[in-house]
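It is worth pausing here to work through a concrete case rather than discussing structure prediction in the abstract. The textbook approach is simple: state the sequence, then state the predicted structure, then interpret. We follow exactly that order.
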Amino acid sequence: MIKLNDENIDVVCASLNILIQGIKKYSTFVAGQEFEKTKLVFIDLILRMYPNIRAIHGLLIDYKEYKNTGNLLPAGLIVRCCLEDVLQMAYFLIFEENPEIMESEINISSSKSIGKNFRDYIKKIPEYWICPQSEKEQLTCELNKRYLELQKRCPFYFNPTTCNIKKTKEFRRECANVMKYFDNGIGKILEGDNVKFIYELLERKDKEFSYVYMLYKYFCLFEHYTYFSRKAPSLNDSSFLQLILSLEYIQRGGY
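Step two, the predicted structure:
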């Protein structure tokens, strides 16, 4: 068992600092260069770990210096965000030999931020919810123009017949060799696209990184609130060990 003490926190922080400096050097290396879409996705996923890892480092230092036990709870939640990025990277790398499928899966992931259709799209716009009812019609017209511009700029997200966002299986149907990865066992294309689906596919292709899902779901200082999590800030040695395991996988997968 790894004890939650100052010495071990120092070891973890030193390890995190190596990762922070490594990502910082990497960001300097890629600055100003031009990359194709798929490479940019991996660069983005790596670079967005920089502020998260720095935040975890700072929270651990706060815990050590001020004995503020509550600070390890947000550290665990930030770790969970990092683990999801590691899962995403490992998932995309499954398709390294099929760049067309990789780009399609990137588009599937990106399309979720748009919504299924225009009505779903405007629900994802913050100003729509705070807009007075008397101004909602005008705002809806403006958002519709923005949505039409998006259709022209990124037609690969949209079904040309319905003008709605393509369904997952529609994205996959357009790719050659798709059954190599998405055969459901009876000759039909798998339609899943959530984190659990990513885990199940990783489990078949890369068992080592499929374990990241277990850390993401169960060991990052709580997935959801429960009555029993009310004592979460009072961390024990067991939860510190879980934090260490999670960070180890981030270091192995994120850099």
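Step three, interpretation. The two ends are 27 Å apart (CA to CA). Residues 1-94+206-255 form one domain.
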